[in-house]
Amino acid sequence: MFTGIVEELGVVRAISRGARSAKIEINAKTVVEDVKLGDSIAVNGVCLTVVRFDGSGFTADVMAETIDRTALSELQPGHRVNLERAVRAGDRLGGHIVSGHIDAVGVIRGQERVDIAVVTEIAAPPELLRYVIPKGSIAIDGISLTVVDVFEAAFTVSLIPHTAGLTTLGLKKPGHKVNLEADVIGKYVERLLTGRIPSAESGRAAAAGKGSRLTREFLLENGY
């Protein structure tokens, strides 16, 4: 489990691609200070397992499904990545609960400077947007952020200079892809109220107006 608070920006050293998997080598300092083989590190929000490390970085295996379903497929040597070690008992939960399992890949659609912040609009699929609410939490490339607004096919977040300067979002432009993970609380609420296990198919069905009992009328009838 992670918290969405990026500890450092790593740099992709090398990527070795196989037929159905890949190895990614990342230069890093902070996250390898107390690392052990088998430890989990979030790389742009994706939970990866350390298979090799030294004082200058670490190596992780990436399975085919992870490559296919995340924006890690876009990485090249020299690219910067957000890094966070798994949270330990007693650590502060500075962001929100992040599993490191990506729900969807979004695309940055626009950026607008508002005073000191940059309001960023991200296009996302309906199966993810059903769990996104204004003032709720979402992980973008592993960064815990607060949602500003939600639209039919996108949502916005506001980046303060601190976040932009210490994460990859300060480097990204319209058209760039990002990993998205919805707040797990919404998924558990849906499971509790409807008895359905959230999935991409159920998300698309709900977006089309069918396949889910979690409606406004259902919530009103049950006291919400």
UniProtKB/TrEMBL annotation:
Its EC number is 2.5.1.9. Pathway: Cofactor biosynthesis; riboflavin biosynthesis; riboflavin from 2-hydroxy-3-oxobutyl phosphate and 5-amino-6-(D-ribitylamino)uracil: step 2/2. Residues 1-96, 97-193 form the Lumazine-binding domain. It is an enzyme of class 2 (transferase). It catalyses: 2 6,7-dimethyl-8-(1-D-ribityl)lumazine + H(+) = 5-amino-6-(D-ribitylamino)uracil + riboflavin. The keyword Repeat applies. Lumazine-binding repeats lie at residues 1-96, 97-193. Catalyzes the dismutation of two molecules of 6,7-dimethyl-8-ribityllumazine, resulting in the formation of riboflavin and 5-amino-6-(D-ribitylamino)uracil. This is Riboflavin synthase.
